[in-house]
Amino acid sequence: MAQLAAFYERMFFIRRFEETLLDLFSLGKLVGTTHTYIGQEANAVGLIDHLDPDRDVIFSNHRCHGHYLAFTDDAFGLLCEVMGKAPGVCGGKGGSQHLCKGNFYSNGVLGSIVPVATGIALAEKKKGTGAVSTVFLGDGTLGEGVTYESLNMASLWQLPVLFVVENNHYAQSTPVELELAGSIAARGAAFGVETAELDTTDVDLIHSAAGQAISRIRETSAPYFLVLNTYRFSPHSKSDDQRDPAEIEERRTRDPLLIAGARLADDERSAIEARCEDRLAEIVEAADAAPAAAPEAA
Amino acid sequence: MTPPPKRGVQALNEALHEIFGRRDDVYLFGEDILDPYGGAFKVTSGLSDAYPDRVITTPISEASLFGVAAGMALRGQRPILEIMFGDFISLGLDQVVNSISKFREMYDDQVTVPMVVRTPMGGRRGYGPTHSQSLEKLLLGIPNICVVAGSECHDLGALLIQAVEDERPVFFIENKLMYGRVLRRPEDGHIAELAVRESDGPYPALTFSGTDFAEASATIVTYGGMLPVVLDAVTELILEHEIFCEVVALSQLLPMELDTVLESVSRTGALVTAEEGTLTGGFGAEIAARVQAAVWSDLRAPVQRVAARDGIIPSARLLEDAMLPSVEDIVAAVSALEGVRS
User: Which listed residue, of A25, A137, B24, B159, carries a Cα 20 to 30 Å from A176's Cα?
Assistant: First the structure.
């Protein structure tokens, strides 16, 4: 129960962080772009609970905030980065999609991150650190050829890479049916990579499956291909959404927060939510007051 | 005691053995690099026998291999990636543009990407349109990388070792003809009849003079596999036209540092650029812009560019020769400058 409460707190915080970003955009306090993780929180929280931030490595994509928060818990550094503030984790140079802190990296070109994560796994294997290199892909990333080159090399060289495909069923505005042929899971299997597929937003089930995947990688030092069928409630970035509202409403009945929250006592859930709101309000206030990232004085 | 003559491939191979012996974080990736084959041009010969755990033969997956090397470098290793033909760097350009060159600055200096991409460029071997190009100019517009191209008069092995020690990503351009040519290093400040000065810095420039650095008619700036063509032209200009030139052979193409060129132009008042890549948007164009901005009043004529024609490199010998810059092209460019003076 303590574990579920912790998961709920992390998921709720990610949800509210991302909703706050969209609010800040509306208020004109953010410029540029962002890709929110709203609806997919159980994936990051359930999976990353098994990773050790001091040893394991994550390479994430454009939709990286949930992964970043679950791995580093550095909400202030992230918010400042997205707001273009000097204390941002990359000094405002990276912005929403290009984060780096410790063993966490993200980049904004789909597919490009997959070979880099494969090289990271090779380095860690050669160094004998026992680290797992986790890379987050989406259904859209499966259109990029380097994904398959990387699967081939990771399998050929038996590298400790966890390929996580978060299939949220849309590549920006294009439904998966218009961008993907064949089976996603079979793509991993075709390269001789152990594969599992889940169709759930239940953080406990994702935690359990991810635990199995990561244990297998630690035992065998071989790659693993984990397909998580999911859904994002929010637009691809900010307001670009032409999906059928009825489809989104139907998906909201399987909101990971509803599923996990229903297992908590009302007062416990309320306390968690209040704690998250307080923490977020403090962070927003501090980030708002922080100085803008600016060129160094000559 | 003069050391025995050494060919380009041998100098590079010895340097790789030296750096593998010196550092245990150096890895080599590439296609067909294992012994006994030892790479398409044999540069990696003997390495996989000596260091089997650190020499990794790869699938034909250039687009990903650039990224794999970047991942190794991010995690503290020193990967060297051999791309069998320079023409294939196009497959890896996404990684170069959006990952390798960007990580350090966009992550606010939290990381470095110390990797080397070695690859042969150049034609004159009849390999045809997709195995003969000099594509290094595609790299010259990418900030935050280093592009190095030694010539047969540079200490090629020292350049390669320096590249591996460099904290920046280095693209190390080798020339196919240079692999088989005997290297010529300055002795007592001379190579053949020409006086030679070598600049300081990790990737030196060589300045050649037929007048012992007294006044001369023009400076020709070049690099890599074009140097022997330029030196042949310089000899012809002296013997047949009594025109004396200086030649600057850069080895660091990017970041572009032109002190040696500007110094030479201050003695000659005219500049010709010579490269084997195609003309438009090339090495010479960038140099011309910079030199004209820096020393416009010292120049007595517009900068002349000698390069390959803007087209494909045909396979047939006579067609290829007509496409690539020649001794005659360089002589003509220098003669054109002389016409301006008279």
Answer: A25
